[in-house]
Amino acid sequence: MRLFLLSIISLCIMLSSAAYADNATSAAKPKPLAPVTFQDGNVFDPMKFAVIGKYVYYDQFKIYTGSSKDDPGFGKRRRTAHAGQLTFRAGLFEGFEAFLTATAFDKELERKNAKGLTDESDIQGLGDIQVMGRWQALSQKKGDPLSLALGLGLEIPTADSGNRNSFGTQPYMGPFLQLGTGSWNPKASLSASRVFGRSRLDGQLMYTLNTEGEHDLEKGDVFQYDLGFGFALTRCLTAGLAMNGVHQEKNTQQMAPGVTRKDPNSGCDMIFLSPELSLRVEPLNMVLGLAAPITVYADMEGTQPVEDYRVVAKMAVQF
Fold this sequence. Notes:
The radius of gyration is 21 Å and the shape is globular. The protein is mostly beta strands. It is built from 1 helix and 18 strands.
C-alpha cells in the first residue's frame, strides 16, 4: 500500500510541475510520441482506429534469493519467453475507447533437480483474450492541465491451462508454463500525460485482480506502476526514458496431489529502467517503437530466476 501511495504522489508531483512549465509552442515544433512500454493518458477520438503489434522477449537465467544474487546449483531454473501481442484499438464515442488484445506465447523452462538431472519444458499457443475500456476524465486538448484516462478491463479465460508437470511433485505446471489460468481477472488503470513543448511526462498505474482458475491455480495479484519522460529530437523521432515497476503477490497452486497452498518461490518486486526510441513513419501513418527495460532492482520471494534486461518492440498503424 505504501508503494501504491508513493507512486501516486510521485506521479502527481511530476505532472503538476510540468503543468507550470513553459507551454508556448508553435504548430511547426515537433510533438513527442507516446511511451513504448505503457499506455499514455490520451483516449482516441470517435471513429479513430489503430492496429498495434507488440513483441516482448526475456531470458531469466540469474538466480536470486530475496534481493541477493545466488547460485544454488541444484534446483536451478532458467525461464525464456517470447510474447507476440496484437491489439485492436477503437475510439467508440466522445471520450471513450476500447481495446481488444490477443497474445501468442512461446515459453521454455529448464530445471535441475536435487540429483542433478535436467528437464526442459516448452509450450506455445494463444493466451487469454483481454478487453479494456478507457474513459477520458481530463484532456489537455480541451484546456485541462493534463490528460487523464481511467480504464477497466477483463482477462477472459480462453487459453489452455492444463499443462501437466512431468518433473517434480506438482501435478500441474505453475503460471509461467501455462497459457492461461482458467480465471476471469479484472483490472483497473489510471493513465496521465502532460505535453509541454517538445517534451512530455507520462505515468500509469494498473492493478490486476487475479482470481482462482482451474486446478486450484491462482496467480498473485499484480500492481504495475510506470513513469516516463519523452523528448522529440525531430518531427518524427522521439527519445525517452521510463521507469517500469511491478509488485506481484505469491501464486497459489497444487504443490502436490491434494495439497494446495501458496508457492514460496513466487511473488516479487522489480523495477526496470527503459531507454526508449519511437519513430513516426508519416506516409504510412505508422509509429515504430523500441525499448530495452534493464533490471535495476529485484526482490524475489523465495528463490527465483531473474533477467538482466528485456526487449520490447512495438508497431502501431492508425486509420
